[in-house]
Design brief:
4 strands; alpha+beta; elongated; 137 residues; 4-stranded antiparallel sheet
Amino acid sequence: MNESAASSSNPHEASLDLSFSEDGRNDTFMIGNESFPASLLDLPAVVESYKTYDDSVLIKTADVGQMIMVREENDPAPEGVEYKHGLTPPMRDARRRRFRREPDLNAELVNQVEKHLISIMHGVSVSILLFSSLATC
């Protein structure tokens, strides 16, 4: 890709095009006469981007949640719609290392606790609830 951009005598003449397919995730990136496959991927975490005009004050410009990955023709497409690594080396395999797995909750237990909380809000004594839950066990 760098060679295609550099081969033009005038860098402003190099034509760039990005066209998406029907699914909105797979696309073709064209630079000059060459085309490369590309994919729109979700990042594992939102990245804030900042800009400065005087090297001391930072101004937030955007929250970046997606990226377009351009690859060579013979490189395999990434699996899924979420890129498991972030933009920088410390975020490698970020989804597995930095974020908790969703807990496995028993739906019956959640419903029982919800009913107990509603009863407490309506004025039922906690000791009655404890006695009734021990009797059902």
